[in-house]
Design brief:
alpha/beta, 12 strands, 7-stranded mixed beta sheet, about 375 residues, 14 helices
């Protein structure tokens, strides 16, 4: 899997190879190149439309959604969409994005594995498909170094996760179980107190002493380090090959069936964006930060942005085997009944795009549509 490290020459070659609260911010994304003022250019005049006038894409204003941030900011999705306009919506929580997908408020979304699993199983396999990968890693356990010096010191402490049953919550509960400690998954009470706290609130909770640490995604982890926390564990170290899915791409099954040309265009934009990011990570980092400023009104300072960006790997591969493992972890924690994930993936459109680019196909780990 490519990491966020390579050369400008590869960037040029890569680009040439591929001719539970919703945020009120909603923007229309257009164009082929980010403007200096952080806004996005418009649909090219006279460009040919695909099978819909507009495609609606949801994502989080978060570095683990770098593909969406950069692809939208730089107009790389729009370039592949031609005369079909791109409309984007931003979310703070996976369940809200799943609700939007089910309500047909968005067509395609960038989202974590746990809400993807929950959305698929609760609809009895009828709501969505995972059609591509986006990011791996970017999740860390950071702690108050005055209270916690080793992993064993977590016993009896208060550790924040973003939300009951979210991807990081499941990972932390699974890690606790591996230590032989007991925690009630619903209440968070036990040998470790798991405190479900919105990522926006966690830095204040940490500085006030309400929590002693947090198992959180970037850039929250680096924000906490800037406030005096110390990184104690990178979740990537717990996975084979140091890779696990943190963000993938989902689509409404109805939209996939009715508008395969649009889905394929978005995937071409995703692959093109990932090539762009991996070929010139510094320029891509600046682009992602410009997108965050446009969406949230505030860019990340270098002391937070730089370490956060380095810990995230951008990939087209959805890392299906790791999603299956995360589902098993949720079952083990008592947060999910054993799910039937057969058919959750449809990677045919992505593999078609990858083949056209001379790239190897990716696997659905036996969980694809028949």
């Amino acid at each position: 899997m490519p990491a966020l490290r390579t050369t400008a020459r590869r960037r040029q070659a890569a680009v040439a190879a591929l001719p539970l609260l919703a945020v009120a911010l909603t923007a229309c994304g257009y164009g082929s190149q980010a403007k200096d003022d952080g806004t996005k250019p418009g649909v090219a005049a006279g460009a040919k439309k695909l099978s819909v006038d507009t495609v609606r894409i949801g994502y989080f204003p978060n570095l683990t959604h770098a593909t969406a941030l950069v692809g939208d900011q730089e107009g790389l999705f729009q370039k592949e969409l031609g005369g079909t306009a791109l409309k984007t919506s931003q979310f703070n929580a996976g369940p809200s994005e799943i609700e939007a997908l089910n309500a047909e408020s968005i067509d395609i979304g960038f989202i974590g594995p746990s809400p993807s699993i929950n959305g698929y199983t609760r609809s009895k396999g009828k709501s969505l498909r995972i059609i591509g990968g986006s990011a791996s890693g970017g999740v860390k356990l950071v702690v108050d170094p005055k209270k916690i010096k080793t992993l064993d010191d977590l016993k009896g402490k208060r550790i924040a996760t973003p939300q009951l049953g979210n991807t990081q919550d499941v990972a932390f509960l699974n890690w606790i179980s591996g230590k032989g400690w007991k925690v009630d998954a619903q209440s968070g009470k036990g040998d470790v107190s798991v405190v479900r706290t919105d990522n926006k609130v966690t830095p204040d909770a940490f500085t006030s002493g309400s929590v002693d640490g947090a198992w959180v995604p970037e850039p929250t982890a680096s924000k906490l380090v800037a406030e005096g926390a110390r990184e104690l564990l990178d979740e990537s170290s717990l996975w084979p090959g140091d890779t696990f899915v943190i963000t993938n791409i989902i689509v409404s099954q109805k939209f996939l069936s009715e508008h395969p040309d649009v889905v394929e265009a978005v995937l071409r934009g995703s692959v093109r964006t990932n090539e762009w990011i991996n070929a010139d990570p510094d320029e891509a980092k600046a682009s992602a930060n410009a997108a965050l400023k446009r969406l949230t009104g505030k860019a990340l300072p270098a002391e937070i942005l730089d370490p956060a960006w380095k810990s995230i790997r951008i990939t087209d591969d959805p890392l299906a085997a790791t999603l299956d493992a995360q589902a098993r972890h949720a079952v083990k924690a008592g947060l999910l009944e054993k799910p039937d994930l057969n058919g959750i993936y449809d990677l045919k459109p992505l593999n078609k795009v990858l083949k056209a680019a001379g790239r190897p196909e990716v696997s659905d780990a036996g969980l694809g549509v028949n």
